[in-house]
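I had to read the description of the data format several times before I understood it. For illustration, here is how one protein appears when written out as sequence plus structure tokens:
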Amino acid sequence: MNNDQIDGIQAELVRTYPSCRVKVNDDKQEIVAEIRDGFAVAVIERSQPHFHGTMREIYRVLRGALYVACGGQGHVLREGESLTIEPGLIHYARAAGEPAWIEVESEPPWSPEDHHVL
């Protein structure tokens, strides 16, 4: 995503979720709006392969389509579809076209100590 796209996405996230904290990954390929413990909205062009030791995630597509590789299997998620990612499974995603907007529920809530990038 370029800087103009990032600025527009950040503005929309803050308008939609006024109390959120927005983080942009260093590679500018993923933006995450932390809404509350265990719930975020991510805008993904491409995510890095990673896993979580204890956390279970549920991805639910709000806008666009997302290719997800998880545990050696490929998935295509479209608007309204979801995928549960169990602890320990290596996963990553990329948008099918424009950046995809997804809800991310996590149990227990996400923590940097449980986020292991490969």
Observations:
- The two ends are 22 Å apart (CA to CA).
- Residues 3-117 form a domain with the Jelly Rolls fold (CATH 2.60.120.10).
- The chain has a mean pLDDT of 96.
- The first helix runs from residue 3 to 16.
